[in-house]
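Morning!

This is the sequence you dropped in the shared folder:
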Amino acid sequence: MGDIERRLLTVKEACEYLRIGRSTLYRHIKQGKIKPVKIGKRTLIDKADLDRLIEESKGKEA
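The structure's back. Tokens below.
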């Protein structure tokens, strides 16, 4: 892929990007905070959704 930034991340990459565990990522998916992209048997996560989750979480800190 070279220098082209990828839009879709694997579940593992999404967890690394957010620095969260796999179960936490799937909890966000179940709650509708992140919408997975299914291509064949692969589950991918749009990086824009992860960035949006980060921005939304900034205002919820106690």
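Headline: The mean pLDDT is 90.

More detail when I'm at my desk.
O.
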